[in-house]
Design goal:
The chain is of the alpha/beta class. It has helices spanning 9-24, 41-49, 60-68, 86-92, 101-113, 138-145, 170-185, 201-205, 219-223, 334-342, and strands at residues 4-8, 29-33, 54-57, 74-77, 95-98, 118-124, 151-158, 192-194, 214-217, 225-226, 231-232, 241-254, 277-283, 295-297, 302-306, 311-314, 327-332, 347-351. It folds into 2 domains: 9-224, TIM Barrel, CATH 3.20.20; 241-351, no CATH class. The chain has 10 helices and 18 strands. Strand 5, helix 5 (101-113) and strand 6 (118-124) form a beta-alpha-beta unit. The relative contact order is 0.14. The mean pLDDT is 95.
């Protein structure tokens, strides 16, 4: 059945072991983020077997899947829980990243009902403008939530790159550590300084990550890449995932459609360049399954576009003789991997279980 996503657990483990060894030498804990794999227990078990003892996911559904799959290690909800799901958050996780008092209050109520100490990490707004408490409000925020029962205010976190595309820099890191210092001076003992995600690894490679004791890492482990800094991480593998689609048509066709052009199936007006006839292949794999712009072809082919159910390729330069029924392979980037894992039309094939 195609499309198929091939998942090589040994290659993922190689990345996880290498990163965990490198960071633990500097006393930096990895929170292994499982959301790119939709909280699949196989993936979580690989992280745990690599020495990663704390997991993180943004979706309570994924976290429930992890617990149902037998994962007993610490799990944090790394997107602030919704108030409507806060009871489940307290039940299935050990802690959460938050930014709002009302969320903390709801978590406190449910933690008290369950007679449970629940950990809180507060996200600080460091300029990316996704989520976070403003730096000038952080002390008052800590004072306010410190009166809530059954909560352990563990520390602070920062996030960059995800909304505004802001890159981590030594200046950003210093500003973040200054927030921690101010909180300590106001009597708050911080055990966790969660200094970012895969995008912050570049600072560690440059020897600039002193003072941080945690990174929340998903993309580097899974794909060996850093999207924010637009780089391949050279000491990691990029081939842990391969997506494969089957050819349902091969023909030579014009590059310019014939007739009056309107909007495509997704409401956009396509633009075409007339390059004459080319040899094309169509795969039974579409936008319902994968983000075309986040695929890297393994063969010498070019992605032309497609629709919800079709991926159209220029195969004129490929060296092998293709026929209908043959398969084409790609490396997925982060947006595509997320979509592939979520699509029920994509078969997931685990290797080296």
């Amino acid at each position: 059945m195609y499309p198929s996503l091939h998942i090589f657990l040994d290659r993922i483990k190689e990345n996880a072991v290498k990163l965990n060894s490198t960071l633990s030498d500097d006393r930096i804990e990895i929170m292994g983020v499982t959301k790119v794999m939709s909280g699949h227990p196989y993936y979580a078990r690989v992280l745990i077997d690599s020495g990663i003892n704390v997991l993180g996911d943004s979706r309570i559904q994924n976290i429930y899947r992890l617990r149902k799959g037998g994962i007993k290690e610490k799990i944090y909800q790394i997107r602030s829980p919704m108030i409507s799901e806060s009871r489940l958050s307290v039940k299935y996780t050990d802690g959460a990243i938050i930014t709002e008092y009302d969320v903390a209050k709801s978590l406190s109520v449910h933690a008290r009902e369950m007679n449970k100490r629940y950990s809180i990490i507060v996200m600080v707004e460091m300029g990316d403008l996704r989520e976070g408490v403003l730096k000038e409000n952080i002390v008052d925020f800590f004072k306010k939530i410190s009166f809530l029962p059954n909560l352990n205010i563990e520390g602070i976190a920062m996030n960059l790159g995800c909304f505004g595309g802001i890159k981590p820099t030594s200046k950003k890191l210093k500003d973040f550590l200054d927030v921690g210092r101010i909180l300590e001076e106001n009597g708050f003992n911080l055990t966790t300084l969660s200094g970012g995600a895969t995008d912050t690894l570049i600072l560690h490679e440059q020897g600039l990550l002193g003072g941080i004791n945690q990174l929340r890492i998903g993309e580097a482990i899974a794909l060996g890449r850093d999207t924010t800094n637009d780089r391949v991480i050279g000491y990691l593998r990029q081939d842990a995932f391969i997506v494969e689609g089957e050819i349902i048509e091969i023909d030579e066709k014009p590059t310019l459609p014939e007739g009056e052009i309107g909007k495509d199936a997704y409401g956009k007006i396509p633009v075409f360049k007339d390059s004459g006839k080319i040899k094309r292949a169509i795969l039974a794999m579409g936008k319902h399954d994968v983000e075309f712009d986040a695929l890297i072809p393994i063969d010498d082919i070019r992605i032309l576009g497609g629709s919800g159910d079709h991926l159209i390729l220029d195969i004129g330069e490929i060296k092998r003789d293709l026929k209908v029924g043959d398969r084409i392979q790609f490396y997925p980037l982060y947006p595509s991997l997320l979509q592939l894992m979520e699509s029920r039309y994509v078969r997931k094939v685990f290797h080296n279980l």
